[in-house]
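Reopening this one. Same input as before:
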Amino acid sequence: MTNKSEIACIYSALILVDDDVAVTGEKIQTILKAANVDVESYWPGLFAKALQGINVKELLTNIGSGVGSAPAAAPAVAAAATTEAAPAKEEKKKEEPEEESDDDMGFGLFD
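Same output, byte for byte:
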C-alpha cells in the first residue's frame, strides 16, 4: 500500500520526466518543497536511484505493448486452427448416416 510520501515522489518524478529534466533526489525534493509536501528525507533519493538509467517516457508509452498483448494473439491462432479443422468435421458428417428426427416419424413435441 502506498502512502502520501511515495505518491508525492512519484508525481514529482513524473513532472521532472515530462519536462525532460534529469531525475535526482535534490530535484524531487525541490518540487516537494514548492508543493509544501513534507516527506521523509530518504524518499527522494530512493526514487531517484530507482529511476536511474530508466527511460520513463518509453516505459509509459509502451504500457499496452509487450507481454500484455500476447494473449490477444491466442484467439487468432485458435481461429486459424478451427478453420483448418472444419473440413475434417464436414467430412465426418457426410460419412455418418443421418438420424431420423422425431418429427419425421410423426412424433412431434406438440402433436
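So the earlier flakiness isn't reproducible anymore. For the record, Helices lie at 4-18, 25-34, 42-50, 56-61, 70-95.
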